[in-house]
User: Fold this.
Amino acid sequence: MAVRLPRLRRFDVHVALGGLLGGLLLWAVGLATRTATEPYVLLPGRWPLLLPLVVMAGCELLRRSAPRAALLIGTPALVLDLVTQGNLVTILMYTDLMYAAVLYGPPATAHRIPRITGLLTVAGTVVPFAVWREPEALLIGVLTGLVSFGPAATGLIVRNHRDAAEAARLRAEQTALLAEMDRAQAVTAERARMARELHDMVANHLSAIAIHSTAALSLQDPRTSQEALVVIRENSVEGLAEMRRLIGILRDSSGDTEPVAAPTLDGLGALVDNARTNGLDVTLDADLEAARGAVPAPVELAAYRIVQESLTNALKHAGAGRVAVSLARCDGVLTVAVTSPYGDRDGPTAPGSGAGLVGMRERAALLDGTFEAGPEDSPDGRIWAVRATLPVSDTAEGDTA
Assistant:
């Protein structure tokens, strides 16, 4: 099994070479931290200084790639330096190893080393003073703190600041990601809203145009063709007006123009009359004043669009017979129902994409309402029923356009 060696970093190599050359310079000029006559200098002379210096410089090569190992090897080298005449550069390199072990080491090591060095500093202060009873003995604790606790505490402070900066960067990235997600969701919601509005505003008129133009082409009766052309022209003009109004809303960003009034329940009468003009036999069963009441604008718009799309679908697909539109308000809920004959249509039809049912379901869901559409059995035969329930409480504040 191959042993993976730590990867050396260029800065660490420079620190090691600089420390080694600086220590050799002091050694060459004979500058040491202690004299040979001091009692605890067990290895006097110049040559013993080189071993701890070289070992400490080698440990500097591992200050970031293996900081704990470098500190464990450097500590005996420092002890060895203490029993010689001493080299100032060796001590300085050890303080750097202590700093690097806290800054680059594992989190547990980073918090454990300052506590250990703090206890050693206290012990180095109290024990010598208690034994020798000399004020100068306190300097041992001071030197111990400068060599061990000071670098360790500095490394811990820098590490905490670095971790805080990294956490702030991650939070900023998460905030930017959430903002981008919100923007994408807003764009998607706006595109869906525009698609619903465009479909509801134009599909009804285009469906009537398609059906009546097909009838005009298939019949040879000039009078019938003339009537179909009149209906086609009316729907074309109304469809163009609706399209211009929508384009004006999309293009206007200055806010100088008056906002376009959204359809309300008061417009259902005109909507039903237009459906009759297009050839549908439609009945409207609704007390609009009672149904309207204090209905929020989004609910009025959703109810209007559901009726409009249901009549469009009836015009395109319903069989011969009566189309019934009813609105009722009870217990804070507005119920909208549109029924039409279910079966093959006798006359021309217009193609459908299914987007109308999707749009009606989305409008009801945005108001926390319900929507159902499908064939049903009734006393008069098979029918297609569209039913929606829309809450009309004051909490229905969302825009469903």
The CA atoms of residues 269 and 284 lie 8 Å apart.
